Amino acid sequence: MDSYGTLNEVLVNLFRDVLEIEQKALSCSEFQDLTNNDMHVIEAIGMNEPKNMSTIARILSVTVGTLTIAMNSLVKNGYVTRQRGQTDRRVVYISLSEKGKAAYAHHAKFHQEMIDGVVNQLTEDELSALTKALACLDRWFREKEKD
């Protein structure tokens, strides 16, 4: 198989497998009521200071309306909390509950294991080349997103 065919096959398999394995990691845990999409919302909220809905929507490249649907489920299941702004009551700030922080940590552990599983098999030069190649791929996706 030529380089184009190999790259195409590897990328298609990687994207599919990462999502599938991520979902399996969630379904085999105490967080089985979460979807991959929910985890990405939790990841966008983060462990630091609360964020408003517009900021989270921008991070995820979705509309606030789309985010509201996911957020309602996360609030109902106890993963996030909503709080009105002190100075502007129209602004809603979102933060992770203790359950949400535990889910975030669980997901971060999955990512750490994934990265360690690759990095531990590479030389410094291979790691540098992989990092550069993936950064190029990331830039391409970000440019495509703007189209």
Strand order of the largest sheet: 1-3-2
Radius of gyration: 18 Å
Q: Estimate the global geometry from the Cα principal axes.
A: globular
Low-confidence stretches: none
Find the structural class using helix and strand composition.
mainly alpha
Number of helices: 6
What is the helix content?
55-70%
Count of beta strands = 3
Major beta-sheet overview: 3 strands, antiparallel
Rounded mean pLDDT score: 91
Please give the structural blueprint:
Blueprint (H helix, E strand, L loop, with lengths): L2 H25 L8 H10 L5 E2 H8 L3 H13 L3 E5 L7 E5 L1 H22 L4 H23 L1
Antiparallel strand pairs: 1-3, 2-3
Helix pairs in contact: 3-4
Short summary of the structure?
The chain is mainly alpha-helical. Helices cover 69% and strands 8% of the residues. It starts with a helix and ends with a helix.
Descriptive notes:
The protein contains six helices and three strands; from the N terminus they run H-H-E-H-H-E-E-H-H. It is mainly alpha-helical. It has a three-stranded antiparallel sheet with strand order 1-3-2. The longest helix is centred in the first third of the chain and has 25 residues, at 3-27. It is globular, with a radius of gyration of 18 Å. The chain starts with a helix and ends with a helix. The mean pLDDT is 91.
